Amino acid sequence: MTPHTGLLCYCRAGFEPELAAELTERAAQAGLAGYAKAIRGEGFVRFLGVPGEALARALPLRTLIFARQALALLAELRGLDPKDRVAPVLDALSGHGPFGALVVEHPDSDAGRPLAGLARSFGNALRPALRKAGLLTAQDDARRPRLHVCLLAGDQLLLAAAPHEASPWPLGIPRLRLHPEAPSRSALKLEEALLVLLDADERARLLRPGMRAADLGAAPGGWTWVLARHGLRVTAIDNGPLRPHLFDTGLVEHLRADGFTWQPPRPLDWMVCDMVEQPRRVATRIAQWFREGWCRQSVFNLKLPMKKRWEETVLCLALLRDQAAHPLTLRARQLYHDREEITVFATRAAP
Question: Model-level pTM?
């Protein structure tokens, strides 16, 4: 067993360097000295050298962009005997707990996905043993920390605890299914964004039937469809066609126009944008909408370059803040349904 102090973060495979750069910069800004361990393609990053609880407080998941999940790292176990993986876990957790729930998972990577079956069977064996040892409550208890076991191989795993603000979903991935009426898979991106970037109270308050929205670059209509399902009246801006069934709701108006030049005749509640364009151009356009007072909230995507993606992210968000002419609240995340992009929620900051 190797005791560790630090943070365990899951991410999209291939974006480990971006997450490592983000954690390193953010920790330094918080006055915490540590170092990142990351290998491209593994689907996770460890930031070591600082107690995980301190890192979780300084770098809560809601403020991180390239992390899907952020956990306080407890220990790493190597060389496990396949005949008895349970006993070493019990030994490593001595002095911890009791935990309120157990999650046994694996990185979302090419190497991690084949471990799904082992994760299920190991969880079934570990759960009663933890309860017998007094390390896990008899029933799930959301008031206590959640124990995460991350399998890296048949003989190697990481132990971590979920802070209060950790993602509630395994691996930080909400399981969404594409509705048969959705015009495109891009609908899943906006559905996930509304789940991850807004809390339940904000969704109830900011997505009320009768509100008005614009969807820039709407074709074929995935994001328009999501907004209309919430009862919003949507002006879909795109020179391309929309799926015909979108108009059956009576909530959608299609204008054949350029999303970079069209402007609404009156202020709207929402503007959403998933246009394939240079990220700085998109950030500049979003800033214009807030500067002119054309919308109150926005969800949009920034398509990132192949290199220096963390640096481009920082630059684009700073550009947006500088050019909006009003203080903004920004939340950004690389979602499960994102690819070479991040999704951002922006709204005017409260006075």
Answer: 0.93
